């Protein structure tokens, strides 16, 4: 019998840009339409004992986890006092465990990756959510964080009946050397393996608030879903790869991939 999981990864653009409150229904509706089993979320706000991930999960009837701090650093203006930037996970199935794993950083305060275990019907589904450094001046950190992420995913204690998933805004195009540690650790780019459009871009210059200063990332697919078999001999099938979301929701588009085994 074939089993499946639909994974979405999406940078939600925190509370940046004008009228961030008006974007929230568009984000919720996009998630409802895409119908992922697992939604890995970056630039998620956390405040007043809750988070954007928890609010979205409640609206969808799903489960949530949230970890902080994450990139980019929260602005220090009074309007956003007490509001953090973090990573979120929204899951159709219960999240049995989760933790914030410190990532390497020489040039900023350390951030985290979110490592969680989800109660998939076939067994524990291990998910890693991350947002890597993007500043060209901090390229060394970006490479170190990618190596750390690959090492976390390759951990043999995660082996089991279900694939291991890595998803996030990795701030690197598919052909970037930043991503090389991931396939070296046995992880497969779900988009490419499913025959997704090689010219797809998740950070478009057409967005009215596109961060044009990040020239190497603009008009590239910098948001990724990777997966590795849960055990030797497990065959993964990558069945679908599409983009979701629009400028009314975020400055990024979401990546949605179906993985079967």
Annotation keywords:
261 residues; alpha+beta; seven-stranded mixed β-sheet; six-stranded mixed β-sheet; 13 strands; 34% strand
Write the SSE topology.
Elements: E1 4-11, H1 20-34, E2 38-47, E3 50-51, H2 52-60, E4 63-67, E5 84-91, E6 95-102, E7 112-120, E8 123-131, H3 139-154, E9 164-169, H4 181-184, E10 188-189, H5 190-193, E11 223-228, E12 237-244, E13 254-260
Parallel strand pairs: 1-2, 8-9
Antiparallel strand pairs: 1-13, 2-3, 2-5, 4-5, 6-7, 7-8, 9-11, 10-11, 12-13
Q: Mind explaining what this structure looks like?
A:
This protein is of the alpha+beta class and 261 residues long. It is built from 5 helices and 13 strands. It has helices at residues 20-34, 52-60, 139-154, 181-184, 190-193, and strands at 4-11, 38-47, 50-51, 63-67, 84-91, 95-102, 112-120, 123-131, 164-169, 188-189, 223-228, 237-244, 254-260. The strands form 2 sheets. Strands 1, 2, 3, 4, 5, 12 and 13 form a 7-stranded mixed β-sheet that branches. Helix 1 (20-34) links the parallel strand 1 and strand 2 (38-47). The longest helix is centred in the middle third of the chain and has 16 residues, at 139-154. The protein is globular and about 55 Å long. The relative contact order is 0.18. The model has no long low-confidence stretch (mean pLDDT 97).
Quick structural gist:
The chain is of the alpha+beta class and 261 residues long. The chain has helices at residues 20-34, 52-60, 139-154, 181-184, 190-193; strands at residues 4-11, 38-47, 50-51, 63-67, 84-91, 95-102, 112-120, 123-131, 164-169, 188-189, 223-228, 237-244, 254-260.
